[in-house]
């Protein structure tokens, strides 16, 4: 079988870099496009790719997905079998502060990429979406068929817009498309703005933990290795058009996350209790029956094991 070539946008980021490594191990040629923006340290993103940067079937382009001319050059240079679009401005709170930037990158950037997919006749597209599109649903688990019409953050709205654009291009231009909704992914290389990293960092530095809300909100924490397995299954099995949740289907309340971090680090948290943040949801909870049926997806990593791996990575890179 010929070696397949995959484009991963945002490939230097948290999910993208893990996916890139796994694709190369699975004998894919991987082209990464990432602009190394300053949402968090570009040096961490460069370090994320240290394991693959000298591999013969890895190619890195420092570029912005909104730069049409550079995208055209990249699409002209390689013959992509699949495009995996993970590049985005991420996170709910910062989207409230800069909604225009989120719309520009997550909506206009997605259009720029889909236009190149159309122009160069790429037949397989995977879009990284988010559980944020479900809004503040009070009853779980969340099914892919549930309504996503009630957004409560600019981030969620831009991800919903991206999904709709993918649907349009899939229909009009016969692009096999899979939308993957990620649920609170965590693990080594976690973005510094994410709760698992922030709480761990505060514990290790003996700083107060900034806990927003009562501590009874819950998240469907999903370990990075499980998510990557799900994405690779989607790469290997194109669909005409599908939307698929990748979660753990086992929500954990915030206070339990803090307790697990205390167990792993051997430190006691000093909690600074703050009001709930605007745009935050009470829970995320993935129904993963569709992923299990279509992709053979089965998350394996418990919170304790996953936090232990995050802790090991943190002590190697931040101590």
Q: What is the CATH fold-level name?
A: Rossmann fold
* CATH architecture title: 3-Layer(aba) Sandwich
Which stretches are poorly predicted, pLDDT < 50 over at least 5 residues? none
Mean pLDDT: 96
Rg on CA atoms, Å: 19 Å
**Helical residues, percent:** 40-55%
Q: In this structure, how is the largest beta sheet organized?
A: 7 strands, parallel
Number of domains: 1
Widest sheet: strand ordering: 3-2-1-4-5-6-11
Bin the strand percentage: 15-25%
Could you say which structural class the secondary elements and strand pairing correspond to?
alpha/beta
Instruction: Please trace the helix and strand order, writing H or E for each element.
Output: EHEHEHEHHEHEEHEEEHEEHEHH
* Helical run tally: 11
Question: What secondary-structure arrangement, pairings included, does this model have?
Answer:
Blueprint: E1 5-9, H1 14-25, E2 29-34, H2 42-48, E3 58-62, H3 68-77, E4 82-85, H4 93-97, H5 99-119, E5 124-130, H6 154-173, E6 176-182, E7 185-186, H7 195-204, E8 209-212, E9 218-219, E10 222-223, H8 224-236, E11 241-246, E12 252-253, H9 254-265, E13 271-274, H10 289-295, H11 303-318
Parallel strand pairs: 1-2, 1-4, 2-3, 4-5, 5-6, 6-11, 7-10, 8-13
Antiparallel strand pairs: 9-12
């Amino acid at each position: 079988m010929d070696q397949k070539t995959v484009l991963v946008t945002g490939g230097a980021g948290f999910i993208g870099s893990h996916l890139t490594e796994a694709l190369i191990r699975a004998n894919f040629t991987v082209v990464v496009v990432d602009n190394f923006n300053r949402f968090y340290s570009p040096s961490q993103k460069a370090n994320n790719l240290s394991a693959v940067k000298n591999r013969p079937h890895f190619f890195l382009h420092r570029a912005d997905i909104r730069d049409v001319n550079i995208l055209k050059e990249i699409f002209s240079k390689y013959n992509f079998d699949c495009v995996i679009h993970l590049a985005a401005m991420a996170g709910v709170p910062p989207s409230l502060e800069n909604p225009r930037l989120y719309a520009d990158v997550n909506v206009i950037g997605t259009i720029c990429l889909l236009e190149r997919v159309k122009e160069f006749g790429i037949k397989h597209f995977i879009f990284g979406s988010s559980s944020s599109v479900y809004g503040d649903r009070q009853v779980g688990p969340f099914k892919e068929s549930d309504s996503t019409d009630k957004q409560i953050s600019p981030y969620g709205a831009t991800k919903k817009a991206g999904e709709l654009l993918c649907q349009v291009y899939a229909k009009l231009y016969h692009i096999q498309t899979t939308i993957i909704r990620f649920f609170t992914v965590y693990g080594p290389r976690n973005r510094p703005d994410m709760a698992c990293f922030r709480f761990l960092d505060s514990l290790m530095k003996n700083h107060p933990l900034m806990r927003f809300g009562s501590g009874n909100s819950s998240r469907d924490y999903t370990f990075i290795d499980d998510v990557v397995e799900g994405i690779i299954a989607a790469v290997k099995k194109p669909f005409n058009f599908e939307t698929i949740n990748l979660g753990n289907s086992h929500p954990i309340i915030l206070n339990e996350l803090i307790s697990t971090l205390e167990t792993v680090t051997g430190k006691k948290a000093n909690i600074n209790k703050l009001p709930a943040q605007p745009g935050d949801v009470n829970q995320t909870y993935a129904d993963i029956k569709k992923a299990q049926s279509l992709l053979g997806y089965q998350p394996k990593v418990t919170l304790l094991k996953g936090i232990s791996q995050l802790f090991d990575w943190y002590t190697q890179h931040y101590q």
